[in-house]
Write a structure and sequence with these properties.
single chain, Helicase, Ruva Protein, domain 3, 5-stranded parallel β-sheet, 15% strand, 14 helices
């Protein structure tokens, strides 16, 4: 990218990013104390990926995606995953019409733009896998017919880390479809006071007005794809990924703690997310800090821990932190 192209791209980014800053401000008025969650929601949306949230109930996981849908003026649907759910309850099915004597397709809730898959680990694997084609191919096959999904299409799935009885852990192939896995923590005491004050108001809060349209998201994605990613930054991303697979090559004594390194999707997704982070920071180029900021959320659910790591209560975050400290920054 030559200097004139870089300057033109920078100018376009400066014109567009204020709208996303306004979007973040609007969301933060409803979702208090979860700034990291809101940032990752925007990253997944602009990088055309999906988000897996893990946290205890009551941390505004459901509210966040529904509020985002209102702020972006997009279609929103919610699926409550339960053990008795069937794949047809997710994608739809064919129903016989006695008047026409034909089978007609009844589309399921996956036909939307923002989909909340609430407590996804409560449904059996057959139901979980029903989302695979929609998440990866952006299409759904019912019978012999294939239907394209609207764009943008964002799946936000939640799971509760406390209750393990009656749950079905997501298989690695399903986990790998999620661009980011975000762990949602409790709000600070100051933020919790704001939440309490908001709910003690006598009058209901003013409904959130739309800030952007779906077309604005698609246009911003085109800008994100033009952001300059230097060859040295690309090499840095590959080195971070390589350190999860061959830690000894990078001077890390983690071989006994890692069962499997991250997949090639992690390389691609980390590059996309770093570009979005640069865009949200009003830059036309990626810097190493963009990569380091998103690496834990991209690697967290892809890093296979060994039995020794689990026995020593070493988390994926601990290992990613060591890798980020050890791998040389360009």
């Amino acid at each position: 990218m030559n200097p004139s192209q870089m300057a033109r791209l920078q100018q376009e980014i400066e014109q567009v990013t204020p709208y996303f800053e306004k979007l973040t401000t609007s969301l933060s008025q409803v979702i208090i104390g979860q700034s990291a969650l809101l940032e990752r929601l925007l990253v997944a949306l602009l990088a055309d990926g999906h988000l897996l949230l893990e946290g205890v109930p009551g941390l505004a996981k459901t509210l966040s995606i529904s509020t985002l849908a209102k702020a972006v003026e997009a279609a929103f649907k919610r699926i409550q995953f339960t053990p008795d759910l069937l794949p047809a309850d997710v994608i739809g099915t064919r129903i016989y019409n006695p008047e026409t004597r034909l089978f007609e397709v009844k589309q399921g809730p996956v036909f939307t733009q923002f989909l909340l898959a609430d407590e996804i680990n409560r449904a059996p694997p057959k139901v979980q896998s029903a989302l695979l084609e929609a998440m990866q191919e952006r299409q759904v096959t019912i019978g012999q017919q294939t239907f394209a999904l609207d764009s943008p299409f964002l799946v936000l799935a939640t799971q509760n880390p406390l209750e393990q009885e009656g749950t079905y852990p997501l298989p690695e192939a399903q986990l790998d479809r999620f661009m980011l896995k975000v762990q949602v923590d409790y709000p600070s005491p100051e933020d919790e006071l704001k939440i309490l004050a908001q709910h003690l108001q006598a009058e209901p809060p003013t409904p959130l007005a739309p800030v952007l349209k779906a077309e604005d998201i698609l246009a911003a994605r085109k800008l994100v794809q033009q952001i300059y990613l230097d060859e040295k930054i690309q090499r840095y991303i590959v080195d971070l990924v390589g350190a999860t697979r061959r830690p000894e090559d990078y001077g890390l004594a983690l071989t006994d703690l890692i069962r499997a390194g991250v997949s090639p999707r992690a390389t691609i997704y980390l590059a996309h997310c770093a570009r979005v982070q640069a865009f949200l920071s009003r830059r036309a180029f990626v810097i190493p800090e963009d990569v380091k900021m998103l690496a834990p959320d991209v690697f967290r659910h892809r890093l296979g821990l060994s039995y020794e790591a689990e026995a020593r209560e070493i988390s994926a975050e601990d290992l990613v932190s060591q890798i980020l400290e050890q791998v040389k920054v360009p």
